[in-house]
Each structure stands twice: as structure tokens, then as C-alpha cells.
Design brief:
Number of helices: 23
Distance between the termini: 61 Å
Oligomer: single chain
Helix content: 55-70%
Number of strands: 0
Largest sheet: none
Low-confidence stretches: 1-25
Radius of gyration: 28 Å
Length: 363
């Protein structure tokens, strides 16, 4: 009776003790998952067999209490339970409190801890989370960088420091990566540091083939871009750039200036080049010298602004040799002020033309 009254007093647990089945299962868990964890009835019904062995709701009550005591809200609890139902079976004192406390010691707020654990609830089942959090804090230079890295790879605190991370760091040093470049590299591309040695070497070989040295300013960006691509995709992307009419030297120079170029799809690159070369009259070499032009949205940036420039030229108005580059790079406010408002009296419908094209290409 003492346990019964305890369950009823807890605000998270409206249980019905008549719902135990003769087989020893606990169908009351479906009710609990809905009322205290925010699951839908369908979700709860699907997950409740995972708790069929329970004879009382004491352990789930304690687990949810531990999570909420640390400031996690219902949406975070729901996300954790849906991804890893056994979170509700984790011991509050020996499992949940120490792991969440380690994240709090790392400087994370309750909201940030909710984000981290919602993304990867398995973190709470690793014994040395405090040690791992301390390691990454030192290496990455503080909580903000650690949180940014965890957002990109929620498994970061689950990787073995001894068996995976330390060998990878040693390999980076062997490959000539300066110590100062390691933290930004990990923040930018954490999955690379957790990869197998052969994968890390393969990515480095491809970056080296582009002539980008480990100590150069664009190295981290190039590494992140190349790591997104399989070897065959990388080769296909290089072939695509050759098909644009760029020389090998121009291709390498463009990638050096703008490594993100390698991430863009064939469709996007071809569409941007079509407009820049055929509509704006650019020489392919000009685009190679200014590869950031390819990175802008074709529909929302390149097309409307080229249309404005063409209209200005049709009226005998030009703004110099760098007109296209400055027009594409300009902020929205600066573009309107320099290329539209300035000529409003001479070309009254110029702003309407621009807005119409923007409107057609929204979403």
C-alpha cells in the first residue's frame, strides 16, 4: 500500500493497478507512455511490449523524474523514449544523474542538454561520459564548440577515446595537420575523426590531389567538402568542372578559392553556368576566377539580378566591368539601392520587374 500511494502522489503517473495481465505483462505502460512521456496512443501501444517484464512503474517513474529534475521538457523526454525506449529502465542514481551532470559541468544549459540527449539518448548508457566530455572540452576549446560538434555528430560522446579518437588524432599529425587546425577540422567535420584510418587517408589523398596543403587557410573547408563525396563522385565532379570549359589550372584555382563548389549538384552547377555564360555573357574563365557566383540561388539571386542588369544595358546604362560580380555579391538592400533605386526615374518599372521575378521564384 505504501508503494501504491507513492505512485499516486507523483504528478507524472496516473496508473491503474487493475491493468496487470495474468501473464505478468504490464499493459499500464501504454497509459504511462501517453500521460507522462507525451507519446500518441499508437506509439505507446507499439513500445509498451518493451516493458512487459515490469511488475511496477517505479523505474520509469524514477527515470522520468531524473530527466525532468535536470530541466528536460516533455518533448525531449518523448524524443528520447521513442528513439531508445530503454531510457525508462535506466537507473536514476547510477546512470542518468551522473551523465546529465557531466553535460551540465561542460557548461550546457537544460535546453542544450535536451538537444544533445534528444539527438542521441544512448549517451546516458556510456560509463565514462564525464571523461569524454572533459576530453572534448579541452580539445575543442569550450562548451559552444562542443555543442556545435554534437549537433553535427550526436555520436561524438559515444566514440571510444582510446580505440578510435586517439589513433585518429595521431594519424592527423602524421599527415601533417598542424595542431591549431585540428579543433576547427573536428568541429566542421566530426565524422571524419571517427572514421577508419583508411578512410581518413583516402580523403586526405583527394584533398592533396587538389594541391591544398594541410596548413592552408582553405584546408578545413576543402576536407569537409571532399569528405562528403565518395571517390567515384569526386571524380565525376572533377569531370563536370572540366566540361564547363575550365582548364585544369582554372579548376584547381576555383576549388582553392571556393572548396564548397565540390558539394553542389550537377544540376545546380549547370543551371548557374547556363545563366552566367549565356544570359549574362560571362566567359567561363571569369566564372572560374569568381566561383562563388555558382553558389548563389539561381532562381532567387542570379536570375532576377541578371534580368535587372540586362534591362539597364538595354537602356544604355552600365556600371563598369565588375558590374555582374558586385551585383550578385551585394546584399538585398545594397542591390536595390545601387541598381534599382538609382535609376527609378529613368526606368520606372525596374523595381516591379525585379519583384515579379523574385515573386515567381519564391519557394
Amino acid at each position: 500500500m505504501l508503494q501504491t500511494s507513492m505512485w499516486r502522489r507523483h504528478p507524472l503517473t496516473p496508473f491503474f493497478f487493475s491493468s496487470f495481465s495474468s501473464s505478468g505483462q504490464a499493459p499500464f505502460m501504454a497509459e504511462y507512455l501517453v500521460s507522462s512521456c507525451g507519446l500518441s496512443a499508437k506509439e505507446a501501444q507499439k513500445l509498451s511490449p518493451a516493458f512487459a517484464h515490469l511488475k511496477s512503474p517505479a523505474k520509469p517513474i524514477a527515470a522520468v523524474r531524473a530527466l525532468t529534475d535536470h530541466g528536460l521538457d516533455l518533448s525531449a523526454v518523448r524524443s528520447m523514449v521513442l528513439k531508445v525506449p530503454r531510457v525508462l529502465l535506466a537507473g536514476a542514481a547510477r546512470t542518468l544523474h551522473p551523465k546529465i551532470s557531466a553535460l551540465r559541468s561542460a557548461g550546457f544549459s537544460s535546453a542544450e542538454i535536451s538537444v544533445v540527449l534528444s539527438a542521441n539518448p544512448n549517451i546516458v548508457f556510456f560509463r565514462d561520459v564525464p571523461r569524454r566530455a572533459e576530453f572534448w572540452l579541452r580539445l575543442l576549446g569550450g562548451g559552444p564548440n562542443l555543442l556545435k560538434t554534437l549537433r553535427r555528430d550526436p555520436r561524438l560522446l559515444c566514440y571510444s577515446l582510446d580505440n578510435r579518437i586517439s589513433p585518429a588524432l595521431a594519424l592527423l599529425r602524421d599527415l601533417g595537420v598542424p595542431e591549431a587546425m585540428v579543433p576547427p577540422l573536428i568541429v566542421r567535420r566530426p565524422s571524419l575523426i571517427a572514421g577508419k584510418p583508411e578512410r581518413i587517408r583516402s580523403v586526405f589523398d583527394r584533398v592533396a590531389s587538389l594541391g591544398i596543403a594541410p596548413g592552408s587557410r582553405k584546408f578545413v573547408e576543402a576536407l569537409a567538402s571532399v569528405d562528403n563525396l565518395s571517390r567515384s563522385t569526386f571524380e565525376a565532379k572533377m569531370e563536370l568542372l572540366r566540361s564547363l570549359g575550365w582548364t585544369e589550372e582554372e579548376i584547381l584555382a576555383a576549388i582553392h578559392r571556393f572548396p564548397v563548389l565540390l558539394r553542389y549538384s550537377e544540376k545546380k552547377i549547370n543551371a548557374a553556368m547556363e545563366l552566367l555564360v549565356k544570359e549574362a555573357g560571362c566567359d567561363p574563365s571569369y566564372v572560374a576566377r569568381h566561383p562563388t557566383l555558382v553558389g548563389f540561388s539561381v532562381e532567387k539571386r542570379i536570375l532576377p539580378r541578371i534580368a535587372v542588369l540586362k534591362r539597364l544595358r538595354s537602356e544604355g546604362i552600365a556600371s563598369g566591368d565588375n558590374c555582374l560580380l558586385s551585383a550578385i555579391l551585394a546584399s538585398e538592400e545594397a542591390f536595390v539601392e545601387r541598381f534599382i533605386d538609382r535609376y527609378g526615374e529613368a526606368i520606372p518599372d525596374l523595381l516591379e520587374l525585379y519583384r515579379d521575378l523574385l515573386g515567381k521564384n519564391k519557394d
